[in-house]
Known about the structure:
The protein is mostly helical and about 70 residues long. The protein is built from 2 helices and no strands.
Amino acid sequence: xxxxxxxxxxxxxxxxxxxxxxxxxxxxxxxxxxxxxxxxxxxxxxxxxxxxxxxxxxxxxxxxxxxxx
Length: 69
């Protein structure tokens, strides 16, 4: 019978941990990218709603912003 060595399966455990960490980072980056684009689209929509009437005609605030130097 061969005695067990304590570090025999360490490379495979490290490899599994690295693969798991990389997959978590990739998933997190994708989520952040989607979140940022969703926030940017919402801000654009809110800016349009603030500066236009319900019929999409520019309102007073829009013209006031354009007239300021």
